[in-house]
Amino acid sequence: YQAAGEQAFMDDYGYELLFDTAVFWASRLEYSADDGKYHINNVIGPDEYKEHVNDNAYTNYMAWWNLNKAVSCYEELSEEKPGLLGKLSEKLNLESYYEKWRELAGKIYLPQPGADLVIPQDASYLTLEDIDLTKYKEQEEVLLIYRDYNAEQINKLQVSKQADIMILFYLLENYFTDEVKKANWNYYEPRTLHDSSLSLSTHCILANDIGDRDMAYSLYQKSLNIDMGPFMKSSDGGIHSASIGGIWQSVVFGFGGVRILEGNLRIRPSLPKKWRKLSFHLNWHGQDLFFTVTKESVKIENRTRVKAADIEIAGKAYQVFDEIEVSTER
After folding, report:
1. Most buried of the four, 6, 52, 248, 320, by CB within 10 Å?
2. Structural domains for the chain
């Protein structure tokens, strides 16, 4: 919605989705008198190697975001579109939820960085056995850990199948400091086997975010090899279409540095050493924007030219009605 600016989508579907998912999360929260917080127990977070865990950080933060967004949308509609709110309230019984959402959003347990700045992936992860994962990190095929451990045993080890905390930093990057992101990268990436095709692209983007361009490019190349490389056994059942979408994200959101934060479009590129130029299209608020990124500059062409597009380039705000080129050299 923030990218397209299509209010009709929100009126017909978006608000209802936000409200109904907030209703669900309200039903999943459990109050603990020990700390006065609401917890989410017995879940599988993004990391599929950790089953039936409590307080998965990604899950709790996203539920918190959902509840807060539902509150803000409820208040927005009450002022601007009371008729629509009334229709949705009748369908979903929203009046009984609004105050509850506000209470829950303020008291949901959000795992915090420890003294070492590491955020617990879930309530038990940091207490699990820590083993040497070297041979699995160097594997040419996925899932080799199952030759030595079964699923129940893996559930008791400090090992992750795919990105978990990293997805949280990707989606809610402005809620965490660079120091926290790097500390968690240094802790969790060595413990992540990338046994899911969805993992490499997220890590590629985050490697760019923390400034490790060599690691980002290495992960990008590995993501290409999931379906195109010399060891394609994981593709025997078909291609990984979601992973292919992740490759596009690695290019545009990772090396291109594109991000949407609170409805604002940002580009902060970091090209691989071997690349001279990167070009791509984005549709933003109905404007066809064509980006050309080099190591020296960012050029943006507004090919629709109906209205100016507001874009942050390398930390500064610009309006692009026709064409603009900004130096990114430091």
Report:
1. 320
2. 7-107 (no CATH), 125-135+154-251 (no CATH), 258-327 (2.60.420.10)
What CA–CA distance (Å, rounded) separates 235 from 198?
13
- CB within 8 A of 72, min separation 6: which ones? none
Catalytic center residues: 48
Contact between 138 and 111 (Cβ < 8 Å): no
Of the CA atoms within 13 Å of residue 20, those in its CB half-sphere come to 9
Q: Could you tell me which residue, 2 or 217, shows the higher pLDDT? A: 217
**Minimal CA–CA distance to 314: which of 322, 299, 326?**
326
For the chain, the C-alpha Rg in angstroms (whole number) is 22
Say if residue 229's pLDDT is above 80.
no
- Indicate the pTM of the whole model: 0.93
State the DSSP string of 4-23.
Answer: T--HHHIIIIIHHHHHHHHH
